[in-house]
UniProtKB/TrEMBL annotation:
The protein, known as: MGF factor
PANTHER family: GRANULOCYTE COLONY-STIMULATING FACTOR
Main localization, broad class: secreted
Gene name of the record: Mgf
InterPro entries assigned to the protein according to its UniProt record, in alphabetical order: 4_helix_cytokine-like_core (IPR009079), GCSF/MGF (IPR040117), IL-6/GCSF/MGF (IPR030474), IL6/GCSF/MGF_CS (IPR030473)
Amino acid sequence: AAVPAGTLALLGALLWAPWQALDGAPLAELSGDQDFQLFLHKNLEFTRKIKGDVAALQRVVCDTFQLCKEEELLLVRQDLGIAQAPLEQCHSRTFQAEACFSQIRDGLRTYHGSLAAVLELLPGHAGLVETLQLDAANLSSNIQQQMEDLGLATVTYPRDGPGPLPAFSSRFHHQVGGFFILANFQRFLETAYRALRHLARL
């Protein structure tokens, strides 16, 4: 079944930056959809778990390679070509549910692939990295399924974000690359989490 236009407009109002829910908005439409609310709450917890695992890996990179502060590595980052997966559709005035969910789904798939570089870097923590990859794939699948259940069209954007992993020219560049993949993934998850959380407050 298609989602009513009013519901999509409401989603847009709620997710418009800076993430402020609107007082007095007619919330009955979505708050009555128990399946959608269950999806949101379940995947909020899932996203929180993934964020915790990314933070654990960031601590490993800090402890193992003494790479802890982003501002100290920005010059190296310019050489690496590691970009953030885009999520601008989740906090724009022209928000559409299809676009935001599609970007979250696509970004999760991107980071699933990028984590291969972290796996190479931290073979002693392969279990945690592989769990993170599996969780990213599962969350992406959950969102795809929810889009289908809500009758939302799948949107695919031209890939202007991160493409294939760069070929790291040195071990140090690989380490810094791993650092930024995790830092970018953490920021991506924060944005996705805020989007889900505000919808769940209906």
